[in-house]
Specification:
Length: 128
C-alpha cells in the first residue's frame, strides 16, 4: 500500500482541520477582540495606560453582589495586594442583549467604559 489512503482505498485523506477563514472564527474569539478594542479606545480617551487585567467569562457566578440587580454584564474587581484591578465581562448575557455585530460592539464598549469610569471615580459620559 503506497501513500496515505483511507481505509477503503477511495483516495487520499483530507486535512484534519479546515483552513482558518474569517467565517469560521469562533464567536468567543470575536468577542475577545471586541473587548480588547473597547479597552484600547477607553485607554486612548483617558490618555494613559489603565493598568487593569481583562477577562471574559461565559456567564456570571450564581451569587451576585448585593448591589447587582438582575444579571450583570461585567464586574470590576478592585486591586488587592499584588493584584492589579480586574475587569470581567460576561459574554453570554451581553450577546443575548445585542441584535447584531454592531450592537454587540457598542454594548461591549459601553460596559467597558462604565466599569473603567467606576474604577477611576469618573462619570461614564466623560470617557465617552
Amino acid at each position: 500500500m503506497t501513500g496515505r489512503r483511507d481505509r477503503r482505498g477511495r483516495g487520499m485523506r483530507g486535512p484534519l482541520a479546515w483552513p482558518a477563514v474569517p467565517a469560521m472564527r469562533a464567536r468567543r474569539d470575536r468577542f475577545d477582540e471586541m473587548v480588547l478594542d473597547a479597552a484600547e479606545t477607553v485607554e486612548h480617551r483617558v490618555g494613559r495606560p489603565l493598568g487593569i487585567e481583562l477577562a471574559v467569562e461565559d456567564v456570571p457566578p450564581s451569587d451576585p453582589a448585593p448591589w447587582e440587580h438582575g444579571i450583570p454584564l461585567g464586574r470590576l474587581f478592585p486591586a488587592e495586594r499584588d493584584l492589579s484591578p480586574r475587569l470581567v465581562l460576561y459574554r453570554r448575557p451581553i450577546e443575548h442583549r445585542a441584535g447584531d455585530e454592531a450592537e454587540l460592539a457598542a454594548l461591549v464598549g459601553e460596559v467597558v467604559t462604565e466599569q473603567v469610569a467606576r474604577m477611576l471615580g469618573r462619570n461614564p459620559e466623560d470617557l465617552g
